[in-house]
Amino acid sequence: MNRSMNFLIVLVVVIFTSCHSKIKERSEKIYSRHLQKHITLTIISTPPPSNKSDFNLLLLNNGFDQDGTMKITDSLYRKKDIKALLIVAIKAFDAKQQFGVAGITDGQNNGSLASKYSDFIVNELLPYIKKKAAVRSFKSITIAGVGDGGISAFDIAWDNWQKFDKVGILQDFSNPGRLTDFSAITNKIAKSRKKPKLQFWLEVEKEQDESVKEDSSQINNLIETLRIKNVTPSSVNIQTPLNKHQSLINFLLWVNNGN
Fold it and tell me: Which InterPro entries does this UniProt record tie to the protein (predicted)?
């Protein structure tokens, strides 16, 4: 009887442990000298690999469904579709001012903090993450965002391509029909003499209404500009996801495994 009871207890413990997520999530704050603000971070991590240099790092600008990202990361890790991944989601305190193209503002002065935000990412956040994670160098570093957050990510990666390996602009499923202005980043790249060795992930919406058509047209102009700049076609991944769930799954697989 006692043996049967002990067996059942062990079985329950094993089942509970196997069902328990190995993915960890926590919140932290870092003070930015460049932005003169405390910045809130949400950190999602798979179990650390034996060699921490095998970690892939993903920086996410504001606008992501962090709960959904956590669940998808957990699911992919359980299925062994991804290995070592560290995600740092950065909460914006003023997205209109932070996100944009460095040195360029619109008529309402939006994007006025873009340069300082870039300095924060490169000179403060990356060293902070490396120190906290005890990683000298990551296997890969990706920065991405949706809408204006994606433009910001693209601008930061383009200007600091030695620090990044991949960059992504994802579709904004939370604000369907919202027009994102890609003209500033497209013009900047067209005039740039840089030829960064980056991998690009760009999502194009399926055309449904006039605003979506205009948005797709603008991002297609960005894609064409990259082609004119002789960016290797194999380094540009163009996607048309059906929904946010599919978008995140495919994107995280690319971040962790894709080229």
Answer: AB_hydrolase_fold, Esterase-like
Q: Where are the domains of the chain?
A: 24-256
Question: What are the Cα distances from residue 96, in Å, to 100, 124, 170, 191, 219?
Answer: 8, 21, 18, 24, 20
147-167 pLDDT, tens digit each: 899 999 999 999 999 999 999
C-alpha span between 189 and 196 (Å, rounded): 11
**pTM exceeding the 0.85 threshold for the entire prediction:** yes
Residue 137, CB half-sphere, CA atoms under 13 Å: how many? 5
Class of 24-256 in CATH: alpha beta
Average pLDDT over residues 229-253: 85
SS3 170: strand
Distance (Å, whole) CA 139 – CA 43: 18
Q: What is the pLDDT of residues 57-111, one digit of tens each?
A: 999 997 566 678 999 999 999 999 999 999 999 999 999 999 999 999 887 889 9
Is residue 258 within 8 A of residue 83, CB to CB? The reply is: no
The residue written with tokens 């946010």 in the block is 244
Q: Which helix (H) or strand (E) holds 7?
A: helix 2-19
Taking the alpha carbons of 224, 225, 226, 228 in that order, is the dihedral positive or negative? positive
Q: How far is CA 121 from the centre of its chain?
A: 13
